[in-house]
Amino acid sequence: MTEFKIDITLTENPKQKPDFAHLDFGKNFTDHMFIVDYTKGKGWHDARIVPYQPITLDPAAMVFHYGQTVFEGLKAYHTSEEEVLLFRPDMNMKRLNRSNDRLCIPHIDEELALNGIKKLIDLEREWVPTAEGTSLYVRPFIIATEPYLGVAPSKRYQFIVILSPVGAYYKEGINPVKIAVERQFVRATIGGTGNAKTAGNYAGSLKAQEVAEADGYSQVLWLDGRENKYIEEVGSMNIFFKINGEVVTPMLNGSILEGVTRDSILKLLAHWNIPVSERKLSMEELYEAYQQGLVEEAFGTGTAAVISPVGELFWENEKLVINGGKTGELSKKLYDTLTGIQLGTESDPFGWTVKVEKQEPATLSQTN
Amino acid sequence: MTEFKIDITLTENPKQKPDFAHLDFGKNFTDHMFIVDYTKGKGWHDARIVPYQPITLDPAAMVFHYGQTVFEGLKAYHTSEEEVLLFRPDMNMKRLNRSNDRLCIPHIDEELALNGIKKLIDLEREWVPTAEGTSLYVRPFIIATEPYLGVAPSKRYQFIVILSPVGAYYKEGINPVKIAVERQFVRATIGGTGNAKTAGNYAGSLKAQEVAEADGYSQVLWLDGRENKYIEEVGSMNIFFKINGEVVTPMLNGSILEGVTRDSILKLLAHWNIPVSERKLSMEELYEAYQQGLVEEAFGTGTAAVISPVGELFWENEKLVINGGKTGELSKKLYDTLTGIQLGTESDPFGWTVKVEKQEPATLSQTN
C-alpha cells in the first residue's frame, strides 16, 4: 500500500469524561476524530487526527439531499491486561468498501482507514471503559460533501471516525426482547440497498419501529420485500433461530446486511459441530415448527448488542413465546464466548482480535 | 394558523451573480437562506432568514448516520410583467408533510413554510433569471440534527430553504433522451420509502444511473421491486406513454413518487378531453404495443425538467425507437402549456400559479 502520513493535532481542552458506570449508547464522544478528504482527480488525501469538532458543510452538500453516505460500527474492548482489542476490524473495512460500491462512493484504502482508527483509539486509550458490557464504540462514516443539487455521485467526500464510550445497547441487557413481525413496511428488497450499510436503510426503518414500540414491542422482524414471506432481519440486526437442534439464519440474498457478528456466529457454531444452515426461512415454516414445539431459541446478532435473545414474536394476532420467554442456552453460550473473545478472557481460535498497539510517545507528539 | 414571526438578517456581502445566460443546474446559490429549528417539546421555532452560510453540525448528527431527511423541489418564474410566480407550492408543502410522516419527522406548518419561501424569494427577486427555460429553483429540506448514534427518530431538526438560479436541467433541453430499462437494480418497493421524497431513494438510484450512462443512456426506466415487471418511474421523474391515442401513467402504488408535474399533466389532459388512465403498465404490455406500432409518445415529468421526451428505450437487447426518436406532438403541447402557465403567458384555468408579493420595504428592514 501507499504510505500514508497521518497528521495529529491534539486538543487543548480535553473534555471531562462521562460516568463510565452509567453510559448511554452513542451519546458521549471522545476528544478527537480522524478525517480523510476525497477530491475527484486527487483521491483520498489529508489524513489527520484533530480535536472532536463540528462538521461545517454548505447547505447544498449532497449528503443532505441525496443521501450518499455509508457507515460502519465496531467496538474496542479494554482487557484485564490493560490492552485494547478490536474485533475483526478488517471485516468492517471490507464491508465499508462493498457499501461504497453500491453507493457510488470511491473505495478507501482499507489499511489507511484501519491505521487511522487504531491511531485514534490509541490516543483515546483512557476513553475505553473497563466495566463489563462496556466498550468504546467506533463509528467510521463517509459523507458526500460537494455542494450540488443534481442527482449524481458527489465529487467530494469526507471519511470520518468518531468514538463513543458505550454501555449496553439494550437497557434489557441480555434479557429477551419482544418483537413484532412487520407486515406493512419493508426494510429492503433485492436490487435495493439492503446489503449496504447506508443511512437510507435506517431512515426507512424508523416508522415500523415507531409503530411496534407503540404496541409494546422493542423491535420488528422484517420480511422480504418481494413476497412479504421470508424472514430477513430483526430491527437492525441479523436473526437466528434454533429449530429442532439446527440453527437457521436467512441466507445472504442481496437485501440482508452481511453482519460481522452473524459471520462470527456461523463460524463458532461450525467449530462446535452444531448443525447450522443459511437458507430461506418463511414465517409460515417458522410458525409450523413453533406449533410442533420445535422452535427452541431465537436471537438477533449485531455489533451493538452482540446477541439479543428474542422471547416473544407477535405474528398475525398470536404471541409466539420462545423458550418460555427466557434466554436460551445456546444464545447465552454464544454471548459469553463472543464477548469473552472480544475481552480477551476466552481463547481466540480464529485470531479475530486485533491489538491496538501503543505508539511511541515521540511519534504521537511529532506532528502536534 | 399560529402567527409566526420571521426574523431577517441581511447579508453585508452580496455575491456577484452568475452569468444568467449560462446557468448550470443547482450550482449557484443566492445571498440568503430560510431556517426554522425544531426541538422536541418545543416544536418548530426561530423562523429566520439569514445570509447564505455553511451548516455546522456535530459529527454524530443523525442525518449523517441514519439519513432522516426529506426535501422538496419547486421553481419560481420571472414573468414578462416583472412578476415572480410559484407553481402549485401548496402541493409541495403537502407532500413535504407526507414525506415527514414516512420518515418520522414532525409535521411543519405548511403556511409557515410557504410564507418563509415567499419572503425569501421576494428578498432574492433579482436572482430570478428571466431568459427562456431559466427559473429560480427552490429547495426546501429538513435534516435530523441531534448528535446521537442510536437508531431512533431525532429530537432535533432544521428546516432549510435555499435558492438556486437554474438553466435547463438536461443539456439536451426538450430534445428526446435515450433510456435503458433497469433489470438489476430497484429504486423502491411497496412498504418502502419510494413515495417519500427522501435522500436514501436518490442515493440508491445512483448505481443504476452510472451503469446506464456508461452504456450511453441518460436515464433508467425503473420497474417495480416485487415482480420486476411493472413500469414505475424514469430516473427521478414520473413516466407517461401515449399508446394508441390513450395516455397511460403508472398508478400511485406506494412506491411511486406523487409528482406535482404528474398531477398537473393528468388534470390538463382531462381538461383537454384526451383519454388518460393511471394503471399498472408492464414492460411486456408496452413492448407488445410497440411491436404493433401503437406506442406514439413517451415522456418523463418532473419539476426540474418539466417534460423530458423519451426517444429510445433499451429493453432486452432491443432498441425501441419512439416517434422516430423525435419529440411528440402531445409532449410538446404539454411542455408549452405547462411552461406557459408557469411563466404567466398562458391562461391558468386551474389557478395553479401563486404570485410572490412584494413586501413593504419597511417590513423588510424592520428586523434587519
TrEMBL record, chains A, B:
Q: Which Pfam families does the annotation name? A: Aminotran_4 (PF01063)
Which Gene3D superfamilies did the record assign? Answer: 3.30.470.10, D-amino Acid Aminotransferase, subunit A, domain 2 (3.20.10.10)
SUPFAM superfamilies linked? D-aminoacid aminotransferase-like PLP-dependent enzymes
Protein's UniProt name: Branched-chain-amino-acid aminotransferase
- The organism is Mesobacillus persicus
GO biological process: any one? L-valine biosynthetic process
Catalyses which reaction?
A: L-isoleucine + 2-oxoglutarate = (S)-3-methyl-2-oxopentanoate + L-glutamate; L-valine + 2-oxoglutarate = 3-methyl-2-oxobutanoate + L-glutamate; L-leucine + 2-oxoglutarate = 4-methyl-2-oxopentanoate + L-glutamate
Q: Which InterPro entries match?
A: Aminotrans_IV, Aminotrans_IV_CS, Aminotransferase-like, B_amino_transII, BCAT-like_C, BCAT-like_N, BCAT_family
